[in-house]
Structures are given as C-alpha cells and as structure tokens.
Amino acid sequence: DAGVTQSPTHLIKTRGQHVTLRCSPISGHKSVSWYQQVLGQGPQFIFQYYEKEERGRGNFPDRFSARQFPNYSSELNVNALLLGDSALYLCASSLGRLGDTQYFGPGTRLTVL
Amino acid sequence: GEDVEQSLFLSVREGDSSVINCTYTDSSSTYLYWYKQEPGAGLQLLTYIFSNMDMKQDQRLTVLLNKKDKHLSLRIADTQTGDSAIYFCAERGSSASKIIFGSGTRLSIRP
User: d(Cα B63, Cα A62) in Å, to the nearest integer?
Assistant: First the structure.
C-alpha cells in the first residue's frame, strides 16, 4: 500500500512569492495535517483538515492557508514568502477520528531566497 | 502551556542499549509517541503508548511512562548503525487535533 505522498520534494522560491504544496493521504484516511519543521527543531502543527473542513489550526499567520479536496488530498498555500518560511513541510494522514495515529509523508523541502 | 523536552544528543556503542528520555508538561496528554527521522526523510512512527499504560515492548523497543513525573523513555536494545537518526518524543491530548513534538535527540553509534 502506498504511504503518504507529497509533491514536490524540493522547491526554491524568492521572498514575496507564493507556494502551493500538495499531499495525498494513505488510502482510506480522511484526515490530513500539515506541520512545519525548521532545521534543528521538531515539527510545528499548522493545520488539520477532516472531511474538507478545518479541524485545528496552529499559531501561524494568515499567509498560511490550506484546503482539502473530495478525494481527501490537500494543498497547503503560503503567500508573501519570508526567509523564515524555509523549512521541511510535512503532511500526515490519519483515519480521521480524534486521537488517531498520524502517519507522515517524506515532506517538501522549501527554500526561500 | 504544552511543552515537550528532550536532550539533544546521545552517543552509544554498537551493541549497547540506548535510552532516550523525554519530559512533557501537559497533564491531559493521552497519547505519547516516538518518531524516528533519518537524514533528509520524513517521520517514521516507531511506537506509541496510551497514558493509562506504564510500559510497552515491541521487539527491540521498550517504552516506559511515568505519568506522575510526566517522563517518557525509549530504550533500544542491541543498538545498530541503522538506528542512527533523530528521535522525536511527542504528545497529544484525547481531543486534540495536533501533536506536540520535542526538539529531537540525535542518536549516534560508535563502533
């Protein structure tokens, strides 16, 4: 069975641009969560979506947004990129019930120049 | 507030046991996790324990939970070179949508 997939694997952008990252959950999973992992730190929670609705939001500015599609895949959008947005962006999928174990994808490495 | 703390580095000799420790502050934590991250890769779930358990064993991995002291540990028996990675301790409340991670412990193996 395929695990969580994310695209692209690497991305280079300049300050002020916007970026869209994509995630496909494990088959049968209905919930997707997004995390940001800055180099040398643990992942920080950004969003969780379940059945196309936002279930949780972390302490990130409004430049960060996300959505979930009917097939449960998800996009994370970041506008007006800052140097500090450079990080590994991880997507995690779970069945959807609160407390379900989250399984992580390989991540998208975003570099902002 | 919610916080998870771990020591940054651990070095062990190949074949010895590794013990990685973690403390957390949220007394409502229901799920406690250990994730492994190899260089350039995502997070691999190693094991997890419910807060009503004291211990969980899974092959070479043993998790101990002291809920009173909010202390979690991961023991890796017979540590091998393939165990070199960063290990993240994480916690989650029963109704929480987010997982709170520590900063990770880098495990290095000496020959």
Answer: 38
